[in-house]
Amino acid sequence: MDSSVTRRGKPCWYKVEGVGLDAVNDALILESFLFWLIEKYFDGKQYVALMKLFHDVSLKTQMGQMLDTMSEKAKGKKGIFETFNMKYYTRIIKYKTAFYSFYLPAASALIACGLTAPATLKACEEICVAMGTLPCHPMNSNA
Question: N or C: which end of the chain has fewer CB within 10 A?
Answer without folding.
Answer: C
